[in-house]
């Protein structure tokens, strides 16, 4: 094989640069199309629902009259359901991820567990709703409550939390573990003082992204029987409820009927009155703002924590 001349090498390099330029241009075009579609959808939603974005919209209950309807019970229910979801999914998911990555032996049992966790992340959300309907609503007797909804969504995001925890732990250099154990630290001390703090940015990012997915889920919430029309709030702890004046307990609110933003939007879009579509657009914009806020918090926390890490 004859060696390439200088001119042939230049032509080859020029072809490679041209391919890189074409690929970069195609990537920018695809990104621009995606962003344009998002901006058009969000802009249309904002323009249609802008007139309803006022204080009354956030402080009024749903009504049969479109101009009097609000999202008070929906956004309060969404926050409470997300709180239960986080309380159930985060400790369990993070602990499971730490165990599988740091403590579990590498054998066929852990291989099966890892395969099932990966597969569960791809299961349709309606399946989790059917599972929760049989277990939480009927078997455990939680009924159509905030607790049932929170546990259902916790099951939904649990694989995401576990996988993100494991990936965050895997990103920690092996020398951190070796150095800690070399000075006499136990495995738990290594995890507590080194592995978990260094992996926390990745763990928090995965947790908030999982919660951002759960906040917009509709199918599993409908399956367990969330109300589409509700004109009251869950009882506030230690305040009198009803005509008998009995004070509500600290956790009575978890057993209360509820609705969430996605259910409220679904209810309004199914109404024949076009005025409810304006309400749905406004509520959709609010829900998108909640999701974007959660993602912004994840980015900020990741940036701040990674900035403070010193290997």
TrEMBL record:
Principal location class: membrane
Domain of life, source organism: Bacteria
Molecular function per GO: phosphate transmembrane transporter activity
UniProt keyword terms in alphabetical order: Cell membrane, Membrane, Transmembrane, Transmembrane helix, Transport
One GO CC term, this protein: plasma membrane
InterPro entries documented for this protein: MetI-like (IPR000515), MetI-like_sf (IPR035906), Phosphate_PstA (IPR005672)
Membrane topology per record: Multi-pass membrane protein
Record keyword Transmembrane helix present: yes
Matching CDD domains: TM_PBP2
One GO process term, biological-process aspect: phosphate ion transmembrane transport
Location in the cell: Cell inner membrane; Cell membrane
Domain called ABC transmembrane type-1: residue spans: 75-298
Residue ranges of the TM segments: 21-42, 74-100, 120-140, 146-165, 195-215, 221-238, 250-268, 280-301
Family: Belongs to the binding-protein-dependent transport system permease family. CysTW subfamily.
The protein, known as: Phosphate transport system permease protein PstA
Originating species: Azonexus hydrophilus
């Amino acid at each position: 094989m004859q060696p390439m001349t200088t001119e042939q090498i230049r032509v080859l390099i020029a072809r490679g640069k041209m391919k890189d330029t074409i690929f970069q241009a195609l990537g920018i075009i695809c990104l621009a199309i995606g962003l344009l579609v998002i901006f058009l959808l969000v802009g249309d939603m904002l323009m249609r629902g802008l007139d309803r974005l006022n204080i009354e919209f956030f402080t009024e209950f749903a009504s049969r009259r479109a101009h009097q309807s609000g999202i008070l019970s929906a956004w309060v229910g969404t926050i409470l359901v997300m709180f239960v979801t986080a309380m159930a999914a985060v400790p369990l998911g993070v602990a499971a991820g730490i165990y599988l990555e740091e403590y579990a032996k590498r054998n066929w049992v852990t291989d099966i567990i890892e395969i099932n966790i990966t597969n569960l992340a791809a299961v349709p959300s309606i399946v989790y709703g059917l599972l929760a309907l049989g277990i939480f609503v009927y078997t455990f007797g939680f009924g159509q409550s905030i607790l049932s909804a929170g546990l259902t969504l916790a099951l939904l995001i649990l694989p995401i939390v576990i996988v993100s925890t494991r990936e965050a732990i895997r990103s920690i250099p092996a020398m951190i573990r070796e150095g800690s154990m070399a000075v006499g630290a136990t495995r738990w001390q290594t995890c507590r003082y080194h592995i978990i703090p260094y992996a926390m940015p990745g763990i928090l990012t995965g947790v908030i992204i999982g919660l951002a997915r759960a906040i917009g889920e509709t199918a599993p919430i409908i399956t367990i029987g969330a109300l589409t029309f509700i004109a009251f709030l869950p009882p506030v702890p230690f305040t009198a409820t009803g005509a008998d004046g009995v004070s509500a307990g600290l956790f009575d609110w978890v057993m209360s009927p509820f609705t969430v933003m996605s259910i409220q939007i679904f209810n309004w879009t199914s109404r024949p009155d076009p005025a409810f579509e304006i309400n749905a657009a406004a509520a959709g914009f609010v829900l998108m703002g909640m999701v974007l806020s959660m993602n912004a918090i994840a980015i900020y926390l990741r940036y701040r924590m990674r900035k403070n890490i010193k290997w």
